[in-house]
Amino acid sequence: MLCILFLGLPFTGLASAPSEKDWSALANDIDALRKSKKIPGLAATIVADGKQQWAAGYGFADNNREVPITPDTPFWIASITKTFVGLAYLHLEKNEKLDFDELAADTPNFTGLCDWLSGTTIPFANGLNCKAPITIRHILHHQVNDKPGTQFMYNPIMYSRLSRHLEHKFGEGVTRVEGRHNFLGQTIDRYILEPANMTRTVSSMWDRSKMDVFFDLADGFKVDNKGNKQKMRRPDKHIAGGAGVVSTVNDMAKYDIAISTGKVVSGTVRAKLLKPATFNNGQLSPYGYGWYFQCYKGQKLMWHSGWDPEAGYSSLHLRLLDQNIAFIVLANGEGVWWKNPLNMAGVERSDFALLFLNHVLGEKLAEKSSSECFAN
């Protein structure tokens, strides 16, 4: 089952701008890759120069293969939620509601969680020193492990403490952070979803005003090597920081457009969001405020992926900053996910990302280091 929409005019402003026919070829390649990855259903879209240019739905949203995927089908976007959280925090900082140099330990129960994590064999515990002055900035940049601010290591457990941080400061206290539309969810609504008119997106599964999105959510699946599907439990989580947002590719296109056109970013927020963070020594990190950054074929990439094996979803939001073009994929299987290392950005290891990059960039361009790419 394939549903394709061509929106607007062919791309402009690229050295070798793909035509509408080229996107039809990409659509076929995406479906072939979906099938090879045994993904039950997938939706994808392309945004360029502030306009949604193409969108498609593939496969089915349910176990009985009765509900086809369309660009308006909601998916659990998993860790792409971190991009919303990072932007929400930037708005709070801009409005002088908080200071990123606040100590995470000032949030009740943070030290207990940190001590527990550091005593486990979970990879995110490697080098974690709970007595070190870990700040909110360190968490937002995934610079928590070892000496804070000195290296990057993806740490979603620490990121998921951010809802407690905000609930302690502005909400009803950390004991009230779960099971309700908490302050973090409300902040994302105010600064992102409402300005971007994202009516098919919920910032937490507890937003009662958008229950239609919850009920329309594509079922998540675990699929074995033989293609046998197991329907997974439906997510019912509050937004903690690491995950919680449900959206469609049409709404994610609105999100991307709102970023590129300045509708949800401006001034200092835009300046901080669209470039990588730095370490204590001034060197560039591969991450900042909820986004990965890297240089590929001389091009600036900004991206995040999502993967939830317990619920059966995976996702990708990839932006080419210089070309102002983005590719977004949401799936109700795990096949979009790849084994990205915890200490670096490697989106070119993603088969879906590479498929898109090859269609857009074509022949190999001059290689550059990340410091050269993001020098300006």
Question: What labels would you give this structure?
Answer:
two-stranded antiparallel sheet, 8-stranded antiparallel β-sheet, Beta-lactamase, 376 residues
Describe this structure in words.
This protein is α+β, with helices and mostly antiparallel strands and 376 residues long. The protein has a single domain, classed as 3-Layer(aba) Sandwich (Beta-lactamase), CATH 3.40.710.10. Helix content is 29%, strand content 17%. The protein has helices at 20-36, 81-94, 110-118, 136-140, 156-159, 162-170, 183-193, 211-216, 249-260, 267-273, 351-361, 370-373; strands at residues 2-6, 41-48, 51-59, 75-76, 221-223, 229-231, 246-247, 287-288, 291-296, 299-308, 313-320, 325-331. α2 (81-94) crosses α7 (183-193). The chain is globular, with a radius of gyration of 20 Å. The N and C termini lie far apart (44 Å).
